[in-house]
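Dear Dr. V.,

Thank you for agreeing to look over these. As mentioned in my earlier message, I'm a first-year student in the group and I'm still getting used to reading structure tokens, so any feedback on how I've presented them would be very welcome. I ran two proteins. I've put each sequence directly above its structure. The first is here:
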Amino acid sequence: MRSPLTDYSSQALAVAVVLALLGAALWWLRRRGWAVLAAGVRPAGRRKLELLERLVLGPQHSLHLVRVGGEVLLVACSPASCGVVERVVTQEREVGVGERR
């Protein structure tokens, strides 16, 4: 007959092995870029979509300046729909606050 101590220790070892396997699988998937810990968050260098600025026009209307890849779009949003208003041409290097050209 087995003692309760050996039953608990074998169960704890089994749980530890399963958690270790899950951790190894998550590490491998994150390294390959197939999994992220927080929803929608990508590593800094691989971001494809970026919200540059948002202007609220009214309670249900707004303008969004969005960078998609290398392109900047002005998007208008209303309760009925969203649409691209204009493709914005930008310079290669943007000037920060307090900098001079």
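The second protein is here, in the same arrangement:
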Amino acid sequence: MTKMIERIERMYKENDNLPILLICHSMGAKMGHYFLNFAKHHKGQSWLDKCKIDFRTRLSGIYLLHILCLTMYRFFETVPV
């Protein structure tokens, strides 16, 4: 996690202090949330505010597969064999 903090700081400085956007996919959304809590605990809220980290973008959360499986199960349950 500390390497990720270092990478975010480097990206922030190299890109003229533009806000950082975390894009997470599937289980990465849980890891992104864990990372933000980790960073807040170790670096403080001021660090999160300084880097302007935005974590509103999640692609295909972990529960999407469960919904798809249930839908397919219901579909095949009604199809005559």
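From my reading of the second output: The helical segments are 2-14, 28-43, 45-51, 64-78. Residues 2-78 form one domain. Does that match how you would interpret it?

Kind regards,
E.
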